[in-house]
């Protein structure tokens, strides 16, 4: 199992890091979309798709980096 350094003196698995990035960025993106006045259903759909793509891209980048 590959690990990445968190910057706080600890390590976590690549899978956990990718999940954390996907969920965190999705929550921030959802807050932005709702703040600018987009509909809830459309925002949730867009955030779900974006979160999956970002999580997979981050995971692939970390996985194949080493």
Count of discrete alpha- or pi-helical segments spanning 4 or more residues: 2
* Helical coverage, percent range: over 70%
| Domain module count | 1
Nearest-integer average pLDDT: 88
Topology record:
Blueprint: E1 3-5, E2 11-13, H1 14-35, H2 40-65
Antiparallel strand pairs: 1-2
Descriptive account of the structure:
The chain is mostly helical and 66 residues long. It has one domain. Helix content is 73%, strand content 9%. It has two helices and two strands, in the order ββαα. It has a two-stranded antiparallel ribbon with strand order 1-2. A hairpin with a 5-residue loop joins β1 and β2. It is elongated. The protein starts with a strand and ends with a helix.
Write a concise synopsis of the structure shown:
The chain has 66 residues and is mainly alpha-helical. It is 73% helix and 9% strand.
Keywords:
66 residues, mainly alpha, two-stranded antiparallel sheet, 2 helices, 73% helix
